[in-house]
Design brief:
Helix content: 10-25%
GO cellular component, one term: plasma membrane
Largest sheet: 5 strands, mixed
Shape: rod-shaped
Organism: Astyanax mexicanus
Membrane topology: Single-pass type I membrane protein
Keywords: Calcium, Cell adhesion, Cell membrane, Glycoprotein, Membrane, Repeat, Signal, Transmembrane, Transmembrane helix
Number of helices: 8
GO molecular function: calcium ion binding
Strand order of the largest sheet: 1-2-8-7-4
Strand content: 35-45%
């Protein structure tokens, strides 16, 4: 066996067809002997197809076979086809020539299909054999020379030269073998009488029939033939014709009559009675067909299947009572009936496909098989209407499902595709398969706001962190591509970053106030919010948001004129010579009140004094306000006086103690020193060149309004120092004014329109 296996040469034939940029179909053929051991290499499929090993791994290469038994497997590491189970050609194909395994190799990403044909060569592993252990004949001694006796043929399941080749009969004193060619290439074996028989000399003969095949070494099988010599029967039955033909529908019922064979024997009596038998060459035919021994009628005894065998050949023998016989051949042709629905096998299928896939992308490959013949086995497949897919057949029995239009997940996220395959028989038979295909999302949709412009209102004096309102955007994509984040775009409001006024929640789109708003500062402002999805790259859109601030009654009315500062009074000067109808002032409303809730108001006091000069005005207003301010500020001045007295007391105590200590230390120094003592006087106390009652370093600066009709102050210099010369008409007023509190000086300052009256002392 090993010698024969090693002598078989492996043949490879490669045929590759490129269908498109998305799929390819190739064909490669190998030839191997049967009975190869497990693990034996059939061929290097990767090398023969021009594929690298990494492609086999990344493409998830796998072998697909229609048979339930897997004889060949793929080694992805070596790229080789290996024997998985021993192959018996006779069990696989019987007498069929050639005998081959038809495989498909599927690759994914991109999807590719390769057809592999492995031809199984026969080896001489079966010897010829006879189905019976011995053959018995009863031959009349009157049998003439040349009489023929049909022998049982030997069986050799091998084919070709390894099959049955010759027969040998021993001894050959009375009988020799002759082979007769039959229709279909078969041969019948006949034992021919070449020497007259004499029962009285030899009543029995035992011969050995040997069948040999043509293999190396030659294998053989034998059977013994026992011959009993009978007296007087010198005519053998003869069939009317050597070949009979009959037709049979594959769905015919058991008991169907097929044909009747007939043979005649010219002998009379029991020697002329013919009996019919079926040859025991094939056991399965003995169960499938039966022949009536008396009439020669052949009847169907089982169920025939066109897909298993489309014809049957029977060998019928006719024997008389003397053992003489003849044979004929009956050919039964099975007519196909459309009794098989197409079978759909999914070779490969993508569970999902991107919505950006190109037109023509293969999403599934199917193998559709109908074992019926002719039109009954011709199949066409269709899919549902109104879907962006099409089904094509790149090769016999292979169908591919492809995209025919652009996909849009937002329109249809999933397709349930029904593939319907029908044959051309009458009536037509069909089968279907459902495919579920998910459309994977691509980030091709930007978030969209519910409104083109947002406008919101918020009352002033709001609490920082207040939620104003919410912007909302939606994204038609899915999962991460539809996850929307909200971002406040950069901008300014009155020169200040908008982020100082509002903030936006990235997840919810809630807009919160960062600070308290003031309607009196600005009545509204706007900014832009961007909605961005989580895709890569991300897509975004923006919207303008306008915040309008609603006024609240949080400000009291203000008197614009006349202007008031602090607690000062407002005065208007009216000359004594004013005529009737002279305009004194405007806006004499005592109380200014708004309409807010709650209402707020402001009060202004207008005092009109008739005078011709500022001192008169000052005198009257000073007397007027003194009593009022005295009561209002009494408590304040009492507290202030108490604090001043306490401070002065503490200061005096500290100064007295410090002087005492200083004098004590000086006396100690002068007591121990012989230096003369020179008294020192501050320049502020010298009396040289100074006249008047005020100290030298005592200066006054007095400023009045520019439109005073009288000059109340004059400046002069003496010894580089400023000396105040006071008009006698103003002396009394000035002294009284200096006695008043500092608050009255502020009132005068307000009345004079911002001029100053300063006193500096050293």
């Amino acid at each position: 066996f090993e010698k024969m296996a090693n002598s078989v040469v492996l043949h490879r034939v490669l045929f590759l067809v490129v269908l498109s940029s998305h799929s390819a179909i190739g064909q490669v053929s190998y030839s191997i002997p049967e009975e190869m051991s497990k693990g034996s290499i059939v061929g290097n499929i990767a090398q023969d197809l021009g594929l690298d090993l990494q492609r086999l791994k990344s493409g998830k290469a796998r072998i697909f076979t229609e048979d339930s038994m897997e004889y060949i497997e793929l080694n992805k590491e070596k790229g080789a086809l290996l024997i998985k189970e021993k192959i018996d050609r006779e069990a696989l194909c019987a007498k069929m020539i050639p005998c081959a395994l038809h495989l498909q190799m599927i690759l994914e990403n991109p999807m590719e299909l390769y057809t592999i044909t492995v031809e199984i060569k026969d080896i001489n592993d079966n010897a010829p054999f006879f189905q019976t252990e011995e053959i018995r004949f009863e031959i009349s001694e009157s049998a003439v020379t040349g009489a023929r006796f049909t022998l049982e043929r030997a069986i050799d399941v091998d084919v070709g030269t390894n099959g049955l080749q010759s027969y040998l009969l021993k001894p050959t004193d009375h009988f020799v073998l002759e082979l007769q060619n039959l229709a279909g290439g078969d041969k019948s074996i006949e034992m021919v009488l070449q020497k007259p028989l004499d029962r009285e000399k030899q009543e029995r003969f035992t011969l050995l029939l040997t069948a040999n095949d043509g293999g190396e070494p030659v294998l053989s099988g034998s059977v013994k033939i026992h011959i009993m010599i009978l007296d007087v029967n010198d005519n053998a039955p003869v069939f009317n014709q050597k070949l009979y033909r009959a037709t049979l529908s594959e769905n015919a019922a058991k008991g169907t009559k097929l044909i009747t064979v007939s043979a005649s024997d010219v002998d009379e009596g029991s020697n002329g009675k013919v009996t019919y038998y079926m040859s025991k060459t094939l056991d399965n035919l003995l169960d499938l067909f039966i022949v009536d021994q008396s009439s020669g009628e052949i009847v169907l005894n089982g169920q025939v299947d066109f897909e298993k065998s489309n014809n049957y050949q029977l060998e019928i023998q006719a024997r008389d009572q003397g053992g003489l016989s003849d044979s004929c051949k009956v050919v039964i042709v099975v007519m196909d009936v459309n009794d098989n629905t197409p079978s759909i096998n999914i070779l490969s299928m993508s569970s999902s496909v991107s919505e950006m896939s190109n037109i023509g992308t293969v999403v599934a490959m199917m193998k559709v098989n109908d074992p019926d013949s002719d039109v009954n086995g011709q199949v066409h497949c269709t899919i549902s209407d109104n879907i962006p897919f099409s089904i094509t057949s790149p090769s016999n029995s292979i169908f591919s499902l492809r995209t025919e239009q652009e996909l849009d997940r937002e329109r249809d996220a999933e397709y349930n595709i029904t593939v319907m395959c029908s044959d051309e028989g009458v009536p037509s038979l069909s089968s279907s398969a459902s495919l579920r295909l998910q459309i994977s999302d691509v980030n091709d949709n930007a978030p969209v706001f519910e409104k083109g412009i947002y406008e919101a209102f918020v009352g002033e004096n709001n609490t920082p962190g207040l939620s104003i309102f919410t912007v909302k955007a939606s994204d038609e994509d899915s999962n991460q591509n539809a996850r929307v984040s909200y971002i406040l775009e950069d901008g300014t409001v009155n020169g200040v970053s908008v982020s100082s006024y509002v903030s936006v929640s990235a997840d919810s789109g809630v807009i919160n106030a960062v600070r308290s708003f003031d309607f009196e500062q600005f009545k509204d402002f706007h900014f832009r919010v961007k909605a961005q999805d989580g895709g890569s790259p991300s897509l975004s859109s923006n919207v303008t948001v306008t915040i309008k601030i609603q006024d609240q009654n949080d400000n009291a009315p203000q008197v614009l004129y006349p202007v008031q500062t602090g607690g000062s009074l407002v005065a208007e000067i009216v000359p004594r010579s004013a005529d009737v109808g002279y305009l004194v002032t405007k806006k004499l409303t005592v109380v200014v009140e708004d309409n807010g809730q709650p209402s707020r108001s402001a009060v202004v006091y207008i005092n009109v004094a008739v005078a011709d000069s500022f001192p008169e005005v000052l005198s009257e207003f000073t007397d007027f306000t003194h009593s009022k301010e005295y009561n209002d500020n009494l408590t304040f001045y009492l507290v202030l006086a108490l604090a001043a007295v306490s401070f002065l007391f503490i200061t005096c105590v500290v100064v007295i103690i410090s002087v005492k200590i200083y004098r004590w230390r000086q006396s100690r120094i002068f007591y121990h020193s012989n230096l003369p003592v020179i008294p020192y006087y501050s320049p502020g106390y010298t009396g040289t060149g100074v006249t008047g009652t005020l100290p030298h370093m005592y200066n006054y600066d007095v400023c009045m309004t520019t439109n005073s009709r009288n000059s109340d102050c004059k400046y002069s210099t003496l010894g580089g120092q400023s000396v105040l010369v006071v008009d006698p008409s103003f002396t009394e007023t000035m002294q009284r004014e200096m006695k008043e509190q500092i608050l009255l000086e502020e009132s005068t300052h307000s009345f004079l329109g911002g001029k100053s009256f300063n006193t500096n002392r050293y």
